[in-house]
Amino acid sequence: MSKFPHLRQDFAASIVVFLVAVPLCVGVAVASGVPAELGLITGIVGGLVTGFLPGSSLQVSGPAAGLTVLVFEAVSEFGVATLGVIVLIAGLLQLAMGFFAIGRWFRAISVAVVEGMLCGIGLVIIAGQVYAAAGLKAPETGIGKIAGLPGAFADALGSTEALASLSIGAGTIAVIVLWKKMPKKAQAVPGALAAVMLATVVSLAFSLPVATVEVEGLVDVIQPPGADALGELAGPAIWGTIIAFALIASAESLFSAAAVDRLHDGPRTQYDKEMIAQGAGNTVCGLLGALPMTAVIVRSSANVNAGAKTKASRVLHGVWLLLFAAALPSALALIPLPALAGILVHAGWKLIPFRQIAALWRSHKGEALILVVTAVSIVAVNMFEGVLIGLALAVIKTAWEASHLKTEVIDKGAGPIQVYLSGNATFLRLPKILDSLEALPQDRPIEVDLSGLHHLDHACRTALENWAERHSAPDTDPVKVTNADPVNAREP
């Protein structure tokens, strides 16, 4: 026991994480358009492979609701058989990023972009899973899903099967939300699991006409990448998806790690090692043809709150998932699909950062705008391009703010007009600089003081020189520029 001083706490925590993970693994797989068992396989790999490796000791990995939209798009475009290749290469890219110490750079991504990404994903998940809860087929695009919701509800009201299905989905969400008000002993069972169990009992007891999970068997769904799937790598189309998988899965995992670090006092995350751990897990998932994995904040926070002390808890949760998938696969066939849709609607709702949007709007309206534009772009276009739009906006905003410049003109009525420039003189502010300078009278001596500049780029330097040469009238002293080449204003 001395070799494993925290075994009791880790064992108890592993059971809690396992119970949280089962409905989420299955729900994410079904929502992604792949067999339910593939979600369990990813959860098992998250425990037994990634769980063993160093990086973040208490963070738990598995299939994530945040990647559901991306996986569904990939499966729709390339097929389930090619999913393994996409995840495999994405995993190898993550390994490379970890070995080349790129992991820590993910902390430099704008928080507004990440929150916007989660918000956009949440909206698409909610819109798509409402159709699944009603047993209806969802439109292909994010805009189509949202625009079609009124029609979907109208269709559901006219169908007994759809109403029964929608009732199970709504009941599942209600149980998850109200479960937190139950006595502490009841809350030992996670709300999502309790909701699925109740939905299963109700649908069986009343013989409700609702669809249930299709079971194919753990071994039967394992699909290592074949020659045809590997051949897809020759085309350019698949590479955008691979890069999106690698970057978005990495960002989710490392931001989750930062959040988990705030929940406990144990060892801090080693970001590059965590990137390697995630890459190793996704490489194995790819070889098995399973879903991609990320670190998942829901499972990770459950792990910390349950009292886990070491990585043993997450490894053990992988063992319990393996035993469940091997011994009780038929239990999956009893689970109603609308119950899983309800779990994902709730998960999607939790991804929308309502408080952060309000706080950002009060303090940083530009950041709030980036968050909203990123979310809307993901809904309107797709996941990858929406994130790129958000990143581009964040870079433009930063560049604009970094080029802050103050122009002060002092005219005492007699003697030269004095102009003081301070801040950063970059090409972004050039129109403003020239407007101010060209408005000065040409028949008065002018002194331009650049000593307050932190940076003077080539475009501004050239424009200032040209203006100084041509501005003064023939019988007026030429423009005098002081400290035109200070040490701190040299070009980098």
Question: Could you characterize the architecture of this molecule?
Answer:
By secondary structure, this protein is an alpha/beta fold. 62% of the residues lie in helices and 7% in strands. Helix 22 (458-471) links the parallel strand 5 and strand 6. Helix 1 (7-31) crosses helix 15 and helix 8 packs across helix 17 (337-351). Residues 486-492 have low confidence and may be disordered.
Beta-strand residue fraction = 5-15%
Low-confidence stretches: 486-492
- The CA-CA distance between the termini, in Å, is 60 Å
Query: What is the succession of H and E elements?
Result: HHEHHHHHHHHHHHEHHHHHHHEEHEHE
Radius of gyration: 29 Å
The SS-based structural class is alpha/beta
Please state how the strands of the largest beta sheet are arranged side by side: 3-4-5-6
Number of E strands? 6
Largest sheet: 4 strands, mixed
Overall pLDDT confidence: 85
Query: Residue share in helices?
Result: 55-70%
Shape: elongated
Number of helices: 22
Keywords: Membrane, Transmembrane, Transmembrane helix
Main location: membrane
Subcellular location: Membrane
Protein name: SulP family inorganic anion transporter
Descriptive keywords:
alpha/beta, single chain, 492 residues, disordered C terminus, two-stranded antiparallel sheet, membrane
